[in-house]
């Protein structure tokens, strides 16, 4: 297994409040890695640091053997990292079609884009039905499918998912979990998944890190963590 | 009646173009461009210089105005707005900067072109007369058609080109657009250049009809803000609706209210105040801009 992404002692601050306090994580090619933890634990900050939306204060982020921190957001997309942001962030006044095409913004190979679009519409048939509708008219679940499709339009090697189950009807959470598994299997894309729904996250990932107050407090094989009494107590308390 | 509608459409097309530029800049950068009217005046003077002084055809003047204003707009974004936005989080900073640019452009226009009213010879002669119901000089019809053509071209560009899609995305969700790989700096610059270009184009179109003078900048900015308040700031359809509505109101006002004196704009302002009290986001305004 080749190392795809690694964080080496990364610190990140919002103004003067720290969000990441010396975080070291890694992700290998083909893996699905979950980041779990409470609100404000620093999970999303890790994703923001990768995408270049936030600058890190110290430490180092390495991607495919090259240094990633300091790279601008557009350049990060070009390197093959696509993000599904928290709260979906659809382009509300644009059609499903235009939303998906925005995902391929950094690509210029027209036939390739057509092909990716076709494969996404096959994966999410609802998007084909709603193809020319305004994104704001879609349900929460449909919007989530659309933004996952939008990220896939970039043909990423690494897919970052920020709380894909947030605000989605419980019935649809399973659909989304299944879609994530299928995508990582079919497209050979590595996944870094941030979730508050720890049970879901652990059940579809290979490995996981638990974060608390900006630090990694637990890490290991997802299946083992699911049965770990500490994890059960801290993260799986209620049946979600 | 037909005459009033024809006049309103003609005026509205020009106004809509001005409002489109203003709303484009606002939606992309959250900047209220108080210098929009001055850019319009500058466009008029560029066209005047090319056509009346250098003796070139009108179309050359039109293209020259578009190019000069696009370059000027790009430079203003790159060297004035961008550093200010980077350093200051407060909206007032860009408002003050825009107001400062308005004064500066007024001074530049005064130095370069003087304070006189300037115009160019008619592009086409003759008057269209439909049974004395609509009487309109052919040059007004031509300019109106050109303005409508430009509006259509702008809409098609925003709807179907990759750059247009990127700008719409940027206006609707800045962070998501960045995550798609849209370079915010680059598209802010393109957007500002396009907005300024549209203002310049209207100036160049109207210099053939009404001429331009130094004093038209401020009032034009105010009218442009009226239009995007009517239509809803940051929305393309709103800018177009606002432009045509203001054009129509002015046309109606000038013929119906003229016997009561120069009260058209008084009535328009009063109506707008009531309208905004009822619907502050404007006609097409959406909570997400």
UniProtKB/TrEMBL annotation, chain A:
<dbReference type="InterPro" id="IPR003593">
    <property type="entry name" value="AAA+_ATPase"/>
</dbReference>
<feature type="domain" description="ABC transporter">
    <location>
        <begin position="5"/>
        <end position="238"/>
    </location>
</feature>
<keyword id="KW-0547">Nucleotide-binding</keyword>
<dbReference type="GO" id="GO:0015658">
    <property type="term" value="F:branched-chain amino acid transmembrane transporter activity"/>
</dbReference>
<dbReference type="GO" id="GO:0015807">
    <property type="term" value="P:L-amino acid transport"/>
</dbReference>
<dbReference type="InterPro" id="IPR017871">
    <property type="entry name" value="ABC_transporter-like_CS"/>
</dbReference>
<dbReference type="GO" id="GO:0016887">
    <property type="term" value="F:ATP hydrolysis activity"/>
</dbReference>
<dbReference type="Pfam" id="PF00005">
    <property type="entry name" value="ABC_tran"/>
</dbReference>
<dbReference type="InterPro" id="IPR052156">
    <property type="entry name" value="BCAA_Transport_ATP-bd_LivF"/>
</dbReference>
<comment type="similarity">
    <text>Belongs to the ABC transporter superfamily.</text>
</comment>
<protein>
    <submittedName>
        <fullName>Amino acid/amide ABC transporter ATP-binding protein 2 (HAAT family)</fullName>
    </submittedName>
</protein>
<keyword id="KW-0067">ATP-binding</keyword>
<dbReference type="GO" id="GO:0005524">
    <property type="term" value="F:ATP binding"/>
</dbReference>
<dbReference type="InterPro" id="IPR003439">
    <property type="entry name" value="ABC_transporter-like_ATP-bd"/>
</dbReference>
<keyword id="KW-0029">Amino-acid transport</keyword>
<dbReference type="InterPro" id="IPR027417">
    <property type="entry name" value="P-loop_NTPase"/>
</dbReference>
<keyword id="KW-0813">Transport</keyword>
From TrEMBL, chain B:
<dbReference type="InterPro" id="IPR001851">
    <property type="entry name" value="ABC_transp_permease"/>
</dbReference>
<dbReference type="GO" id="GO:0022857">
    <property type="term" value="F:transmembrane transporter activity"/>
</dbReference>
<dbReference type="GO" id="GO:0006865">
    <property type="term" value="P:amino acid transport"/>
</dbReference>
<keyword id="KW-0472">Membrane</keyword>
<feature type="transmembrane region" description="Helical">
    <location>
        <begin position="259"/>
        <end position="278"/>
    </location>
</feature>
<dbReference type="InterPro" id="IPR052157">
    <property type="entry name" value="BCAA_transport_permease"/>
</dbReference>
<dbReference type="GO" id="GO:0005886">
    <property type="term" value="C:plasma membrane"/>
</dbReference>
<feature type="transmembrane region" description="Helical">
    <location>
        <begin position="189"/>
        <end position="212"/>
    </location>
</feature>
<keyword id="KW-1133">Transmembrane helix</keyword>
<keyword id="KW-0029">Amino-acid transport</keyword>
<feature type="transmembrane region" description="Helical">
    <location>
        <begin position="12"/>
        <end position="32"/>
    </location>
</feature>
<feature type="transmembrane region" description="Helical">
    <location>
        <begin position="62"/>
        <end position="81"/>
    </location>
</feature>
<protein>
    <submittedName>
        <fullName>Amino acid/amide ABC transporter membrane protein 1 (HAAT family)</fullName>
    </submittedName>
</protein>
<feature type="transmembrane region" description="Helical">
    <location>
        <begin position="224"/>
        <end position="247"/>
    </location>
</feature>
<keyword id="KW-1003">Cell membrane</keyword>
<keyword id="KW-0813">Transport</keyword>
<dbReference type="Pfam" id="PF02653">
    <property type="entry name" value="BPD_transp_2"/>
</dbReference>
<feature type="transmembrane region" description="Helical">
    <location>
        <begin position="93"/>
        <end position="114"/>
    </location>
</feature>
<comment type="similarity">
    <text>Belongs to the binding-protein-dependent transport system permease family. LivHM subfamily.</text>
</comment>
<keyword id="KW-0812">Transmembrane</keyword>
<feature type="transmembrane region" description="Helical">
    <location>
        <begin position="134"/>
        <end position="158"/>
    </location>
</feature>
